[in-house]
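Slide 14.
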Amino acid sequence: MTQFRGIFGILTASYKEDMSLDEKSVRSQVDFCVKAGSHGIVVPVNASEFIVLSDEERKDIIRFTVEQAAGRVPVIAGVTTQSTYQSVEFAAYAGKIGADGLIAMPPYGARATDDEIVEFYKRIGDAGRIPVFIQNYVPPVGTVMSPSLCVRIMQEADYASYIKEETQYSSQVITEIARLAEILPKEKYLGTMGGKAGRYLIDEYHRGVCGNMPACDIVDIDAKIWNLLEEGKEKEAIALYNQAIPLMNMEYMYGYVLYKAVLKKRGIIDCDSVRVPGGKRLDKFDYTELDRILKELEPYYQV
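Slide 15: predicted structure.
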């Protein structure tokens, strides 16, 4: 089974001014991630506004990413939908075109039973025939799964060997999953990655995670923090982490709106528009604060 480790940057679903998917900016993000030292790439998931992409667009963004990555880093394809049937279709497609792994939350809308959730992960793994990340995320799109259910899924679903943990008290959940997973063969549980914009990366590393999946807007800094930890340079890692925390906090507040604003300011995407409704947009005070934070981060950019 493939071993994934490190920072796996999540791409945004970039749009043109007319709100159609912007292939150029998607591919630009891929090149940025590779140059920035990202250890892998993930798309399309929550930070990619996957819920407002058409089926064709979801397939396109996976294909653009796999083509542009060209084997330089692994690509993990998001295949969450409202039904197992739909997710199986995306999983088969991702495996066919060369994605290296899958990530999925259980079908959303109506909460699936535990048995249905286990069957879901069996079927998408069998369809894609590549490693699967079980994404443990909060409602309304996510389904909170207990550590014991996550371990049961890995026991029963052949390709499910990784977790992405993002529920409440996620750090302690990471530790509990690792404890319960001790009953599994070594090749069945290959690790847990955190999320939450990387805000708990230091604590997660001490708990033995195999990585983190943040949005890619400062993936160069995230990857540098990880690399320093791997090199045993914890003081340097914490110092850089402390510099990045203000932006991570702002990211966690505004999500894809903030990711896109940063990517546009860094010249990686052309347009920072979002499709998801709800009015969560940056105001003039947010932009002033963002500019202040980015000015302080610029010396630490790797690209």
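Speaker note: The two ends are 32 Å apart (CA to CA).
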